[in-house]
Specification:
This protein is of the alpha+beta class. 64% of the residues lie in helices and 6% in strands. A 4-stranded antiparallel β-sheet has the order 2-1-4-3. The chain is globular.
Length: 314
């Protein structure tokens, strides 16, 4: 088992303990770490594998930059510390009430493309053994981005096509519909981009870190957990600012100064996103568990314990 996975196994007992780790890992300053320093840190952690107390900064560099399955350095833009700086402007722009369809398509395309790339880069690749992305996988990613872009722009398309002047209907499609829609698209983005894992399976380990085999059941559980966490992230990011603005609109201050509403909405979207990213990453452990009765029969025969471990991906 990789050193990063061993770390998560010992530090992922509760949501709070995982949250503490993720708050440190999402520090954007880790993006300034060079590949040479990352590899040097990686070598240091391997050589000190049996030492109980290690440099926390070295662990943070490794966990925020290295893929646990392949051991390779993640692309800079798809490392966890880059997620907030890159998604914040895209998410804010995607929730804007655009005047035409083209800007809605543009921002949705950028958001869905980036999240699909992030989901793929941080997937579980334990069964791929260094293989590059297949044509089927590339087509699946392209199809996912295309479908999600069209679906994400759908509220703006409906408003434009209806040509309604009713403020109630416009607000419904611009501010209410995007909340469940963004959660559903985030869920389906993860589920389709990482769908190949469910077909091939992922590696599962015993409590000592020894590989037991490949499990499709564990893959389905890993993908489902990640998809749910991403739906919570984007759904909450859309819902909380909408509720906040609806409350503020009823106050005397904002009724007299309606121009304050748009900046408050945009700032609150970015703020809630920043709060929700580490929390959503912490909902499920990076080292997930699956019970003996839920895995394939051939793996049950090899198990001496009641549960197996697997890398969930991100």
């Amino acid at each position: 088992m990789d050193a990063n996975l061993l770390y998560w196994k010992s530090h992922g007992e509760s949501v709070f303990s995982r949250l503490k780790v993720w708050v440190n890992l999402l520090d954007p300053s880790f993006l300034l770490t060079s590949n040479a320093e990352i590899q040097e840190t990686r070598t240091q952690l391997r050589s000190e594998e049996k030492v109980k107390k290690k440099d926390e900064h070295a662990w943070n560099i490794s966990l925020s930059s290295i893929h646990p399955d392949s051991g390779s350095v993640l692309p800079l833009v798809f490392r966890p510390p880059a997620f907030l700086p890159l998604t914040a402007p895209l998410v804010v722009a995607s929730f804007l009430p655009h005047k035409s369809i083209k800007p809605a398509f543009f921002w949705q395309f950028l958001l869905q493309s980036y999240t699909a790339g992030f989901n793929y880069a941080n997937r579980n690749s334990s069964s791929e053994q260094g293989q590059t992305a297949s044509l089927k996988q590339l087509l699946l990613i392209a199809g996912t981005v295309s479908y999600a872009t069209c679906a994400g722009a759908l509220p703006q398309i409906i408003v434009n096509r209806l040509g309604t002047r009713s403020l109630l209907i416009q607000n419904f499609f611009r501010f209410i519909v995007p909340v469940p829609l963004s959660a559903a698209l985030a869920f389906s983005n993860v589920f389709t981009v990482r769908g190949e894992e469910c077909e091939t399976g992922i590696q599962v380990f015993d409590s000592n870190g020894n590989t037991v085999g490949i499990s499709k059941a564990a893959a389905e559980k890993a993908v489902m957990e990640t998809a749910l966490s991403r739906a919570v992230l984007f759904g909450t990011t859309g819902a909380v600012p909408s509720l906040l603005v609806s409350v503020l609109k009823r106050t005397r201050l904002f009724q007299k100064n309606s121009l304050l509403i748009p900046p408050i909405r945009h700032i609150s979207v970015a703020f809630v996103l920043g709060l929700m990213i580490p929390l959503s990453f912490s909902l499920f452990s990076q080292m997930g568990t699956i019970r003996k009765e839920n895995v394939e029969e051939e793996l049950q025969a090899k198990m001496a314990e009641g549960q197996l471990f697997y890398h969930r991906g991100l």
